[in-house]
Amino acid sequence: VFSHVVRGPEDPILGVTVAYNKDPSPVKLNLGVGAYRTEEGKPLVLNVVRKAEQLLVNDRSRVKEYLPITGLADFNKLSAKLMFGANSPAIQENRVTTVQCLSGTGSLRVGAEFLAKHYHQRTIYIPQPTWGNHPKVFTLAGLSVKTYRYYDPATRGLNFQGLLDDFGSAPSGAIVLLHACAHNPTGVDPTVKQWEQIRQLVRSKGLMPFFDSAYQGFASGSLDADAQPVRMFVADGGELLLAQSYAKNMGLYGERIGALSIVCKTADVASRVESQLKLVIRPMYSNPPIHGASIVAAILKDRDLYNEWTIELKAMADRIISMRHKLFEALRARGTPGDWSHIIKQIGMFTFTGLNPKQVAFMTKEYHIYMTSDGRISMAGLSSKTVPHLADAIHAAVTR
Ligand code: PMP
């Protein structure tokens, strides 16, 4: 009965790793997926995560019972505090509902399902370009996806006027997906001044902001600084949704740990919204897993562990920034034609190189370097040892 099933395509991002794994070359390099690697090219488990796990193992009172549908209560409270700030009026007034979800993706999906059921506008505007999974997550949740202008290939920066024009002509109440910081794939973020203009326009048009925060701490190295755009939107008293992921900033990729927060106008509304989120979650996966949430909660609630985390996080962010400088210098040393300053200007895990799909294919075939066909490279996958190989490949691709 399944013989008619046609083979589906590989995921454009995860498929890069599938191809990489098949390549026997000893010099192969995977810059596709956005996962942090050490200077030695190895995945990193943060020391603070190991410590928190040890605490959990040693605590004999811990059991493996089901969590509530909404997840671990401590984790939810601490996650909201991490983004909105310790003194956030919205938290103090109990206007925020936070539910533990399956990492960033699951948080986006639960938020989108809620909006499709309970919000009067079904249209969501996502940036052009954006993370490849966004359109699928929102479409399958029942929203109708449109794009707004975001990236300007000519300047390799923000198309701010295009963004304002597209928000300005969006129907009142439309949902707008905003990357909280370290925009994926472009590495281009609005300035604080631009964020303020965006906020004013969003609020004056009654648009519904849905923030996707997958990289808090990775843009500037500071958790608070990276939370600033979201905090500006909370400070004005308006509503918003927020999807948080701990995949990158705690290196908890496979634990699938994240949170969805909905900031409401009153505590009463927030509690009714939460009751509906439970009805979204229960038939999907009943309740979320306990381990990742316990790790995050242990780190966020202990001052020493929290401080240790911020130091390790900053070290990851700094290593990525140093890779940006090394790659930029290596291209300059080779006299590679073009302006490559965007490599050091862009923010977060990725550089949007400007290489076209043909150049990318050439680099994969001749140099065994793997990346998404839009020319996005994960700076976190580079090391001092591999930068020269990448620079050689880029040089060859643009001069052939
Ligand atoms: N949003 C963005 C912008 C991302 O880059 C990612 C991860 N690549 C996610 C959400 C979701 O990641 P996860 O589900 O692993 O937390």
From TrEMBL:
GO BP terms, alphabetized: amino acid metabolic process
Keyword Acetylation: no
The keyword Transferase belongs to this UniProt entry's keyword annotation: yes
GO molecular function, one term: pyridoxal phosphate binding
InterPro entries linked: Aminotransferase_I/II_large, Asp_trans, NHTrfase_class1_PyrdxlP-BS, PyrdxlP-dep_Trfase, PyrdxlP-dep_Trfase_major, PyrdxlP-dep_Trfase_small
Aminotransferase class I/classII large domain: residues covered: 28-394
Catalytic activity, EC: 2.6.1.1
Cofactor(s) required, per the database record: pyridoxal 5'-phosphate
Top-rank taxon: Eukaryota
GO CC annotations, alphabetized: mitochondrion
EC primary class: transferase
Any Pfam family: Aminotran_1_2
Catalytic activity annotation: L-aspartate + 2-oxoglutarate = oxaloacetate + L-glutamate
Similarity annotation: Belongs to the class-I pyridoxal-phosphate-dependent aminotransferase family.
More about this protein: In eukaryotes there are cytoplasmic, mitochondrial and chloroplastic isozymes.
PANTHER family referenced in this protein's UniProt entry, alphabetically: ASPARTATE AMINOTRANSFERASE, ASPARTATE AMINOTRANSFERASE 3, CHLOROPLASTIC
Function: Important for the metabolism of amino acids and Krebs-cycle related organic acids. In plants, it is involved in nitrogen metabolism and in aspects of carbon and energy metabolism.
Subunit structure: Homodimer.
Protein name: Aspartate aminotransferase
Organism: Dovyalis caffra
